[in-house]
Design a protein that fits this description.
heterodimer; A: 116 residues; mainly beta; four-stranded antiparallel sheet; globular; B: 112 residues; seven-stranded mixed sheet; 11 strands
């Protein structure tokens, strides 16, 4: 069975600090996809990034970066120089290879609070 | 270009009643997935529709049913409502061959 664990329930930072969100996953599949979504107070889940299990290259996209390590089944996400608009709940999610089916297994989420 | 739209945004029902939630996918998308998000938890997959058929289903009882129309819009029906059905119900759409889901803002259901 698939499982996604986000151990941090809430992180509070002051603007311009970096924020790192932890995500640990479990799956028996050899091919899978990992996602990060952001949920602002409006409720809409906003897609941030997606990686497949064959690509462990870590990248940076603007103020976002991620660290994917299959050896530890972790997919951590970092926001650099946080801003007040980054305040939201962030979800890590896992999907089987047939990601087009849209069946995602979400973690419980981490509330990020950025204060001025 | 409208994104995913859901209606109603909020509704209140009593135990035992039935509810229908509606979703219009993002323009051009042909696949709709439904999720239930209880307060303080991550979304849970209910089911997905493509070509007017249920393609995958999560661990939800038969009280939860759905439908997809020829214009790709979708409905989620929940019968015999329980207090535990109180949640935010999210609809997501996508193209059949891609994994990126676009979510609506959800329908907040309260069961009293």
């Amino acid at each position: 069975a698939q499982k996604v664990t986000q151990a941090q329930t809430e992180i509070s930072v002051v603007e311009k600090e970096d924020v790192t969100l932890d995500c640990v996953y479990e799956t028996r599949d050899t091919t899978y996809y990992l996602f990060w979504y952001k949920q602002p107070p409006s409720g809409e889940l906003v897609f941030l990034i997606r990686r497949n299990s064959f690509d462990e290259q870590n990248e940076i996209s603007g103020r976002y970066s991620w660290n994917f390590q299959k050896s530890t089944s972790s997919f951590n996400f970092t926001i650099t120089a946080s801003q007040v608009v980054d305040s939201a709940v962030y979800f890590c999610a896992l999907s089987e290879a047939t990601a087009r089916w849209g069946k995602l297994q979400f973690g419980a989420g981490t509330q990020v609070v950025v204060t001025p | 270009d409208a994104g995913v739209t859901q209606s109603p945004t909020h509704l209140i029902k009593t135990r035992g009643q039935q509810v229908t939630l509606r979703c219009s996918p993002k323009s051009g998308h042909d696949t709709v997935s439904w999720y239930q998000q209880a307060l303080g938890q991550g979304p849970q997959f209910i089911f997905q529709y493509y070509e007017e058929e249920e393609r995958q289903r999560g661990n939800f009882p038969d009280r939860f049913s759905g439908h997809q129309f020829p214009n790709y819009s979708s409905e989620l029906n929940v019968n015999a409502l329980l207090l535990g059905d109180s949640a935010l119900y999210l609809c997501a759409s996508s193209f059949y061959n891609t994994g990126e889901l676009f979510f609506g803002e959800g329908s907040r259901l309260t069961v009293l």
